[in-house]
Batch of 2 targets.
Target 1
Amino acid sequence: MRQPLLTLLWRELRIFIPVSVASTLFYYAVSRDSFASNLIYSLCSTLFIQGLIETGRYGLAYRIRQRSPDNLDAQRNWPGWGLMIPWIVVSGVGGYAAGHMLGDWLTGVQHAPATLVGNLGNPRAMVLSMTGVFVLSLGITYFFYARSRMAEMQTRAEAALRSAAESQLKLLESQLEPHMLFNTLANLRVLIAQDPQRAQAMLDRLIGFLRATLDASRSGSGSGSHSLSAEFGRIDDYLELMQTRMGTRLSRRLDLPDELGRLSVPPLLLQPLVENAIKHGLEPKVAGGWIRVSAQREGSTLVLSVRDTGAGVGGIEGIDDASLDGAPPDRSRFGIQQVRERLAALYGKTASLELVAASDDEGGTLAIVRLPIS
Amino acid sequence: MKATVLIAEDEALLAADLLAQLTGLWPDLHCIASVADGKAAVEQALALQPDILFLDIRMPGMTGLEVAQALAEDWPDRAAPFPLLVFVTAYDQYALHAFEHAAVDYVLKPVRPDRLEKTCARLQTALRQRQLSQAAEPSLDAAIHTLRELLHANADAASPQGKPAPASPLRLIQASAGNTITMVPIADVLYFEAADKYVRVVTAEREHLIRISLRELQLQLDADTFWQIHRSTLVRCDAIVSALRDDSGKLTLTLRGHPDKLSVSRLYADRFKGL
């Protein structure tokens, strides 16, 4: 972290001036020397003490950064209290002594009473001056420590905000896929002239889909819930839009037993799975196929499944797994990952998502979500 | 001005509407076929040789770009001029960038009449120029040049999206046949060839089939080691012994340690220049 030298000096001065003034007043109050003499000694001592502390702080932080560049404290020039406390003691004693020698030289007197050596015979004065030195040293250090903490916390808070905003944007983008949206609008444009009633019906579906998507993305990826029948309703909206576009290439079935309709589920939980089934399963397949979304109860578990007869999970067998890890996560993986994350955040280990190749002759993919019924 | 058009669009409503709009703007335009997937587009275009081809980008089977590539590779030498291409897309930002770069005509869905009118005007001008020059060769050369630009621009545009060269290229292929999984070191592979949903992996001794698309596989290979010479062939460059150009200009590669001869498509022939 490079800072302009002037800023750095100004920051040091801002602490140097009040500390020197305070120590002058302190020693003026406890010693019999003149104010001017105390001022000179205080300025000199503070200069050396602060100089030593600061050199140590930057130097130690630099060493730590070289060993572990990720250390956040060290990035903010803070080596940690463990190293700083012994260093403060050294700086306090050394700086005090050096300051006095400089003071003696400046005032031209061999100043006895308040010096370190002279104080050996006077315990009260000795304790007073040393306490003063250490309180001031600690004060200096604490000032910089607090600054570094604040800056670090601010950096962390900013990073957290940014990543939250990014993931929300990514979520919205994955749900409101522009390609789907513009193709739907293109169909709508045609229908308005050809078949206004069908156009209206399609528009209603689009409105339902948009409203649900925006609501779900605004409430964040985790919170909120709606009934399972509402979930199936939104899936039906989406599939009806796809139906208009794909025509006979798509057939669909939604199986929701009446008694399960009122159970509550996180909004649009299944949407990414249905979208994957269409986008990566059925849309790329020339002949098309069918999709079935169903809900079942198994004891206290709600089992939701999305099955398609599309192009299948991978076409990735035969390649060693290590190489696939390096492959970029595409949208479909983001969708699946997002469902997994939501389930983990809301239900912990009691919920799961399983994605398998369908076992019957028709092929395609089967996604199964298991949730506890609350 | 009379002309023929082939429309490749997988959504029936949109295909019908595009045709209606086109014939409204250009009454003499005759639609000789409307197809709903990439493979049919290639077959029909080769069979019917239309003047103009409207290609949707996202179609089942093959993308519009792949259709154009396949046509440029397979277009017969002494045939009608190569069709004028117009791409149609709802939203493909990388493809759009490539179209702009390679100066290829495209329209966005929903198709707006004013934009389509401009496209028609451009197509008519191009057809007129073509009638003046009469020969088929320049149109094919120009199309190949444009498509090369398009393929490069498309690859460049797609790369910042998160498809950089793999950090560690694939070293081993696990090819399964029945109950056996055979380990094939990449270093042994002479060439890869796409075969329907599979890729043939050919080594000096034998060959294997793996279930992956050539495009996915290519992303995991080192592009300097494996050269693309055809939309369905990647060859290890140091396995090539010679490239032979026949009278019609067709390039054929012979390989070290394998009797197969590989043909280089027009689109990739510029790789082999000779010094």
Target 2
Amino acid sequence: MPPIIEISGLRKTYRRSFRQPHHALDGLDLEVAEGQVHGFLGPNGSGKTTTLRALLGLIRVDGGTMRIFGEEVPQRLPQVVSRIGAVVESPQFFKHFSGRLTLQLLAESAGVDKNRVEEVLEQVGLRDAAKASVKGYSLGMRQRLAVAQALLKQPQLLILDEPANGLDPAGIHHMRELLQWLAHSQGVTVVVSSHLLSEVQVLCDSMTIVSRGRRIVDGNVAEIIAGHSGASLNVRLPDAASLPEAVEVLTASEPEVKAVIARDKLVVSGAPEPAWVTQTLAEAGLYLSELTTETKNLESVFLELTGTAATPGETVQIGQSVEVAPVEAELQVEGVQQ
Amino acid sequence: MNLFKTELRRILRRRLTLIFGILSAAGLLTLVGVMGAISSKGPSEGDLAEAQIWADEANETNPEFNDCVRDEDHFETEDYVWVREDPAYEDLTHQERCEYFVGGFTAEDYLYVYTFNFANEGQYTLVGVVIVVGLIMMMVASSAIGAEWSSGGMSNLMVWHPNRLKVWGVKLGAALAICAAAVVAFSLLAFGLLYLVAVLRGEVGDMNSAWWENSTERWSRTGLLALGMTALGASLAMLGRHTAIASGVIAGYLIVGDLIVSLVSMALPMDYPERLSLYTWVSAWISGRVELYNWNAEEFVPDVMVITSTDAGLLLGGVVLFFALLATWSFRRRDAA
């Protein structure tokens, strides 16, 4: 089955007078399969919103190709736009218009059935606030209204930029249920750009992580996390003073192995298998009190992949994420997919 | 068509449109009310008698006039041959001649009565009303587009309607349609109310076929000017992507720009410096013809430059078209970020 969204080698450079050009997208690739909730992740300034804006024809790109439903965009966007619902960045509305009027105007402009307005208001939980003018809406309510307008067309592809932005816990839960229902029961393909990694981990089936305008990794969320878990082992000894000796023993036995002391434990990576660690240390007269496989969550995988984990005393600046060469990026993708 | 109807509805539902609509109607009613209050059918006999007393009293303190009245042969001298020979003055009495040529006061000088004459003044009042409607619609159009850009609504709309030319065309069309409707509505309202004032408190005047022809032409051209102003406001807002930029450019030109043009034209040794001012061309467009004079120190007869409504229409239309095309190009090419 062909992907719903196919992006290949997308480039976008912002040229500014008297300053270095900024490559917002530097050969980005992206594929989204049908009927999935796909997370689109990356550090600030990595090109997520730029990609979504380019996909929706809001900005011009300098290179690469984009296809939605097999149609090349932005050239064929008018032909497929009726099947796409989208919210890009925090949408603003005319503050003196009510939520209902805002939706009615959009529905009318595209010839959408008027009854859909009430349906989507109900779906996003704004039924009782529909009469009120938007200026009285909280950030979360505006976000719900934005999602409502994206749902108006009964889209086959839903693109949401930070849909959980401003939502309270109940709102986030409701949004998650709604998006999963749309994807898994209605066959809608949902693309979600978000920084709420715990939410993405629960919500999304697949994901793409980008950094500095390039894809770092993509694939099934659970598989990516699993692929980066278990690569390192946490080792504890009865006497923490023996940890430096254990480091020497392990690294001397196998040059590929890396061992780092982290407080009262040893983090070992590159070991052939956990049993090798047990055996090697035991042969040196060092006996373990604990050996666990490090279990990672999406946040730690994300920080590791993007190189944006803060180190004590240092702040990660915008644009300091890892830079991946296109070939290297492809290799990592293949590695994950395998 | 759906988008066009939506755009019409959106502009009409905006608070600014509502406020300007109410203010315009209130302004028109105030104007008509003031006209009705200050106009009257003519002076009463009491007013005339009182004015004559004032004129007589003033003339008593005017020795030159009194000498003229007493001297029956005052206009028989060589200096006044032209008065005697000009048929325009042959029906004047001696006293009237004195009042006219020597300087005497008449009852008219002391009659503070204004009579609104629809045929003479209504035409110009209606032109003024249409110009004000055009200015207001220029602000409404630029605000409708500028606010949509600054609020992020334009990006949202483009996600629904990616064909940018269609979006711009519809927005411009909707603004022009509302402007046309406003011009017609306010013109008819102003016409009716002013006519009523003329009937009740003034004079209707001679509204012959020539008057109708002249007035219709003038109103039509002013209506087109209002449409051009609306298109200009919308185009500037589309270019600047903010209401304040469009309003600033327009207000800046109307107030400071034209002043600078006037100063520059005074500094430059050029013929007909008034042609640098936009007001000259607007005036020529509305009135149909403007004559500019170039006084040469060596000759008593000035050179004349005539600007017709066609010349003015080409220039003003060119300005509007230039900005509309620039806005179209900009909207097609620029990122909606």
